[in-house]
Design goal:
The chain is mainly α. It has a domain of 31 residues. 56% of the residues lie in helices and 0% in strands. It is built from three helices and no strands. α2 runs parallel beside α3. The radius of gyration is 15 Å and the shape is elongated.
């Protein structure tokens, strides 16, 4: 983050940086729901990703 930024800007930047790491758990869950993958409600992001073949 550029110098001189405030805490709010840094939090916003962290959010953007995190989202660049691929789909969120909610996005993966939605796709798993469309595909009717069993046990999806208790899966972690990594497990959902594996179950979806990503």
């Amino acid at each position: 983050m550029p110098s001189g930024s405030n805490a709010k800007r840094e939090r916003q930047y962290e959010h953007i940086k995190d989202s660049a790491e691929g789909p969120t758990r909610d996005q993966l869950y939605s796709e798993a729901r469309r595909r009717d993958i069993k046990g999806r409600s208790t899966m972690t992001k990594a497990q959902l990703s594996k179950a979806l073949g990503r």
